[in-house]
Amino acid sequence: MTALSIPHLRKTKTSSQLIVNGEPFLMLSAELHNSTLSSAKYMADDRIWQNMKDMYINTLLGSVSWEQIEPEEGKFDFSNLDAAILAARHHGIKLVLLWFGSFKNALSTYVPGWVKKDVKRFPRVHAMEARGKRRTLELMSPFHEECWTADAKAFAKLMAHLNEFDGQHSTVVMVQVENETGLLGDSRDRSKIADKKFAEPVPKELVQHLRKNHNDLHPEFLRRYAHVANTDAAECVTWKELFGARDVIDAEEMFMADAFSRYIQHVASAGKAEYPIPLYANVWLNGDDPNGMDLEGVPVVVGGGEKAGEYPSGGPCPHTMDVYLFNAPALDLISPDLYLHDYESTCQNYRHGGQALFIPEQKRDEKGARRIWSAYGNYLSLGCSPFGIDSLQAADCPFTKHYRLLYSLRRQFLDTSANRPEDMMGFFFDDFVEGQKVREKPWTKTMGGFEVIIERAFVFGKPGPGAGMVIHQGDGKFLCIGWGFNVSFKSTSPASTFTGILHAEEKEINAETGELSTLKWLGGDETRSGEFLIMPNEDPDYGGFPIAVTIPARTCIAECWAYSLEEEESGC
């Protein structure tokens, strides 16, 4: 078995693709509830797997906890995991395993009992309460070698076992190292060793890296710490001196990011040495700007919190990501858990440095489902994973119709994302709010000599939601996928005097071969006489208009040809 025969990331024109069994693989992924994969008996139920397949899910994320595989130190039990892998393999579904080791949701609640009870060997983080009282947290210290050594040993055993048990099958395609790392309740550890280390200089190699690569650092880092470029790398500067100019909390957060990222590197590198499939860390996002979040009916803290400690201090948020990328090279990518934050800007944040995007957790409702078209089409996501999928039925799951369509067109998507990402655009429109007066901005992108303009589909009554993707196939030919939108074109040639739609066809697709065939021609009614192609809502609202001028969506796939004219007035 070679490195290229196991699951791995392969560089593409602007990102990376997941390669499984030698072929690009589009993850139509979803995450199970945290305890679901812990029970081989529960996962032996064929109805669970069939329900996933009915949703067109091909990849499931599920947890493997340290406490379950090493209940006694040095004694490992993988029988439950093996049963789950065999069941997934039998049903043709891939797995992404979530290693709940030292850290899960900024706590250490999934470590074995023998670790929890031995506080001398495995010290805890301390937080400061009101009136200067220290409180012991259920969180292993990232500053003690015994902690990361024990975790790394267990993770290495897990990865070695995966190599032996699954290496020839590639059922497991990725592994998450820890979960939502960081510290809640304070901005830094207040233990004696942490106090001592916080007063010490920032590691010189980190300062040198930040100075040398200043122009390539994350915009959110530069927004806070642009002055780092002027720091003399030969000087010994403390965390407070380097990062605390605005607020000491900033310095404390960067200090914890350095500690947690080094800890994760110990664990991840030990596992990768045994089985080098893709590894990633996920993120509990910060909530610096609540105005840019979808917080209707929920408190700010649910969205992440505004200050370090309200969200996990030291986790790989956008402004700390560069520290993780430097300290933890064994990670292949850093991935956002994306529930309430602005979807577009978060996707952009986590494409930083050309790394691939993967969304391991997100909303499982209609609003979340519509947004995956932008993640895939604009940010070339490896996958988008609604959380808690096993408590939904396929018939009621909003993702079923989206994944069905994406599955049928996976070959077209994978080819374009690898070779011509500039020829693809994803988009979405949410439910229209009654009385809304704000004019929506269309989604636009220049492709193939045309400005492609995507607007919400509208008939006569209430506008409906929509989502989809447009792919330029060459020579003005566009593949239109989805529902609830209109697509029009404008030539980018200054000499053009007219742009319109030459021809359009509704397509159907063989989901297994990816071959498109014409179902019917779309004449003038469906293109408004060549002005724009209508990809209608699933249930168009005619608003009482007596003539049903727009047909409902059927296949949600069409091809259209745009053209332009360049005229010269002839002299008389």
From TrEMBL:
<dbReference type="InterPro" id="IPR003476">
    <property type="entry name" value="Glyco_hydro_42"/>
</dbReference>
<dbReference type="InterPro" id="IPR040719">
    <property type="entry name" value="DUF5597"/>
</dbReference>
<dbReference type="InterPro" id="IPR013529">
    <property type="entry name" value="Glyco_hydro_42_N"/>
</dbReference>
<dbReference type="Pfam" id="PF18120">
    <property type="entry name" value="DUF5597"/>
</dbReference>
<keyword id="KW-0378">Hydrolase</keyword>
<protein>
    <recommendedName>
        <fullName>Beta-galactosidase</fullName>
    </recommendedName>
</protein>
<dbReference type="GO" id="GO:0005975">
    <property type="term" value="P:carbohydrate metabolic process"/>
</dbReference>
<dbReference type="GO" id="GO:0009341">
    <property type="term" value="C:beta-galactosidase complex"/>
</dbReference>
<dbReference type="GO" id="GO:0004565">
    <property type="term" value="F:beta-galactosidase activity"/>
</dbReference>
<dbReference type="InterPro" id="IPR017853">
    <property type="entry name" value="GH"/>
</dbReference>
<dbReference type="Pfam" id="PF02449">
    <property type="entry name" value="Glyco_hydro_42"/>
</dbReference>
<feature type="domain" description="Glycoside hydrolase family 42 N-terminal">
    <location>
        <begin position="48"/>
        <end position="199"/>
    </location>
</feature>
<keyword id="KW-0326">Glycosidase</keyword>
<feature type="domain" description="DUF5597">
    <location>
        <begin position="399"/>
        <end position="533"/>
    </location>
</feature>
